[in-house]
Design brief:
Strand content of chain B: under 5%
Number of helices of chain B: 10
Number of helices of chain A: 12
Order of helices and strands of chain B: HHHHHHHHHH
Order of helices and strands of chain A: HHEEEHEHHEHHEHHEEHEHEH
Radius of gyration of chain A: 27 Å
CATH superfamily of the largest domain in chain A: Winged helix-like DNA-binding domain superfamily/Winged helix DNA-binding domain
CATH class of the largest domain in chain B: Mainly Alpha
CATH superfamily of the largest domain in chain B: Winged helix-like DNA-binding domain superfamily/Winged helix DNA-binding domain
Distance between the termini of chain A: 88 Å
Largest interface: A-B, 27 and 41 residues
Structural class of chain B: mainly alpha
CATH architecture of the largest domain in chain A: Orthogonal Bundle
Largest sheet of chain A: 4 strands, mixed
Strand content of chain A: 5-15%
CATH architecture of the largest domain in chain B: Orthogonal Bundle
Helix content of chain B: 55-70%
Number of strands of chain B: 0
Oligomer: heterodimer
Strand order of the largest sheet of chain A: 3-2-1-4
CATH topology of the largest domain in chain A: Arc Repressor Mutant, subunit A
């Protein structure tokens, strides 16, 4: 041990006061940003869409909401009611996320967007994941989803689950229509928006409903002897000369046609 | 067993053990100021510090999420969070120094035209801290700015208590010497107790990692 003067670990009272005064408050946004990073709070910003401005919320786990609320206050209160979390308005989405969403809306299903779907049931998530498989410009009936996820009798529950989709457009619930071929309900601002979005993706909702009214559920090609859902990209390549219309899967099978492996029309037929 | 945890931390640890998501915000609000102070005073850059603190909290959240509740309940949060912060920032905190402060130590350096030199005592100390070796700066900040115990600091920096005490001692000594040197260039400001001069000694340049 050396002498006191050369072995000082305690500052004088005056020095201690100055050192303590170097404590400072954390910047105002730090706590919120931290909670967002771990998924206990969210940020949100506006994006443009075919149906007008939408509010998109996200946190460290993924995108947590897409809504067409009229204003920030309405969005924040609905978001809080659903998730129990605070959402704070930002100027814009993070650049990378904005780019991914833009690509997704343009039809690129293969760029991965993380989704925060906490609070939803396994059934709901199965329905939403299945809806993600429907390509841009095509539609499938509720019954198709029900059959594909192994719950063929749960058609009504599929409709309910799609109505609860927290991230419409990113999970394209607008591509799921009623089993009778009519467009059906839409959670993002009602059926008119659903028609607008489908038109924007290259579909003609009136034509679709016209086919349904005429009782036509499947399209076959007499060269391949395969039948499809009417919006399947394979069906749309069939020229008028080779096109056959079927009212049921049984009729198609009786004519010697097999179901398309892409759109899997049998699932829709069972329901 | 005696619980030497900071008041509130034992209760908070129990809350985190039973409901991480429900009490994590309380943890952030309780510790963000001290972690930010530590990161800023050691690292020197407020934006880096903000990023680092956020990073440390995210690491803490993930760690707690993976621990069994009984382990979370036993956490000494103050020291544990400090350890995480130092680990998260090890590379960034290590070598940073504030160059303008180095100039102030040079004997015969021209009087600073920098208006920084005329700022108050607090700013002067903050700048002088920036010129200490990383190990000394870390020890002084944790002991005398934040107020951690030597045992907590020893655990956080992964060194024996005696080494930490030596760093605090040398750090304080160097700070005093630097103050005297700074005053020598501006004799009218902050008149000091002349007894301090005996502490003046050549600052060693340690290459010790924090």
């Amino acid at each position: 041990m050396t002498t006191q003067s050369s072995w000082t670990t305690d500052p004088t009272a005056a020095e201690a006061a100055i050192l303590t005064s170097l404590r400072e408050p954390a910047p105002a946004g730090l706590a919120h940003a931290t909670l967002v990073a771990v998924g206990l709070a969210d940020d949100y910003a506006l994006i443009e869409s075919p149906v007008g401005p939408l509010r998109v919320a996200w946190n460290g786990r993924g995108v947590s909401a897409v809504e067409s609320a009229v204003d920030d206050a309405a969005f924040e209160s609905r978001f809080h009611a659903r998730t129990g979390r605070q959402a704070r308005r930002r100027e814009a989405l993070p650049v990378e996320l904005a780019r991914k969403i833009e690509r997704r809306l343009a039809g690129d299903r293969h760029n991965r967007i993380d989704l925060d779907l906490r609070g939803s049931s396994d059934f709901e998530q199965a329905v939403w994941l299945k809806a993600l498989e429907i390509p841009r410009g095509e539609v499938r009936p509720y019954g198709w989803i029900a059959a594909e996820i192994g719950r063929p009798k749960a058609v009504r529950a599929v409709g309910t689950a799609l109505g609860h989709n927290p991230v419409p457009l990113i999970v394209p619930c607008h591509r799921v229509v009623r089993s009778d071929g009519t467009i059906g309900q839409y959670s993002l601002g009602g059926p008119e928006n659903k028609r607008t979005i489908l038109s924007n993706e290259g579909l003609d909702p009136d034509e679709l409903e016209g086919l349904a009214r005429a009782g036509i559920r499947f399209i076959g090609s007499d060269t391949t002897r395969i039948y499809c859902m009417p919006t399947c990209h394979d069906a749309r390549r069939v020229t008028e000369r080779h096109k056959l219309e079927f009212r049921s899967a049984r009729a198609a099978a009786a004519a010697g046609y097999r179901p398309c492996r892409h759109c899997r029309p049998l699932a829709a037929a069972i329901a | 067993m005696m619980d030497d945890r900071a008041p509130g931390d034992a209760h908070l640890a129990a809350c985190l053990a039973s409901d991480l998501d429900g009490s994590f915000e309380t943890l952030v609000l309780a510790h963000q100021d001290r972690l930010f102070t530590i990161a800023h005073r050691i690292g020197g850059d407020p934006l880096d510090a903000e990023e680092l603190v956020q990073d440390a909290f995210v690491r803490a959240y993930r760690a707690i999420a993976g621990y069994p509740p009984e382990r979370v309940r036993e956490l000494r949060l103050r020291g544990w969070l400090t350890t995480i912060l130092l680990n998260a920032g090890r590379n960034r905190l290590r070598v940073r120094r504030v160059p303008t402060v180095e100039l102030a130590f040079e004997p015969g350096a021209e009087p600073e035209a920098d208006p920084l030199a005329r700022r108050d005592e607090r700013d002067t100390w903050a700048r002088l801290l920036g010129a200490l070796s990383p190990a000394q700066r870390t020890a002084v900040v944790l002991r005398h700015v934040d107020g951690l115990s030597y045992a907590e600091i020893a655990e956080a920096v992964g060194r024996p208590e005696g080494t930490v005490k030596a760093h605090v001692h040398r750090g304080l000594t160097a700070l005093r010497a630097a103050l005297v040197a700074a005053e020598a260039s501006e004799p009218t400001e902050h008149p000091r107790n002349p007894g301090r001069h005996e502490h003046r000694e050549r600052r060693e340049r340690e290459e010790i990692t924090a």
